[in-house]
Amino acid sequence: MHVEKNVYDSLIGTLLNIQGKTKDGVNARLDLDEMKIREDLAPREVGRRTYLPPACYTMSRQEKISFCLCLKSVKVPQGYSSNIQSLVSMQDLKLVGLKCHDCHILMQQLLPIATSYLPSACYTMSRQEKISFCLCLKSVKVPQGYSSNIQSLVSMQDLKLVGLKSHDFHILMQQLLPMDMAR
Q1: Residue 159 shares a structural domain with residue 78
Q2: What's the chain's average pLDDT?
Q3: Which domain does 16 fall in, by range?
């Protein structure tokens, strides 16, 4: 659960461009430029200031307001999670005071709904790329007891991972995705 909270903090910090929480900074952009990836996102010097061109996931103020209003309007059954409405700060346009379980609920169920109201300008994988990615995950050999059988979690019919536990998520993010991206 703590790994999921860390991923959540990084994701929300980057999406909402929260000062000190975002992972999309000058150093990250310089790394992309050094690796010759997405050169259009390289930092630009304008006078004495460094300007970061907006990425596809960069939200405008209006989109942040829409996103936060969507989360603020969510009602959940008692005991399901914290009162999400009280965790949304409309003044700062960020989420505050979330526990691990709240992050889990947001990542698994509420973020897909909230982000569906935003324009979809980000790059999405083609069907062929999804097939290639799923086949790669199916072919990975994970030592016994190291994780669940990742191969059994890959649904070739839906081209997605099904039934991923937090430990499997950690293994996927830390070990398998870097291997897949290197291919």
Answers
A1: no
A2: 79
A3: 1-124
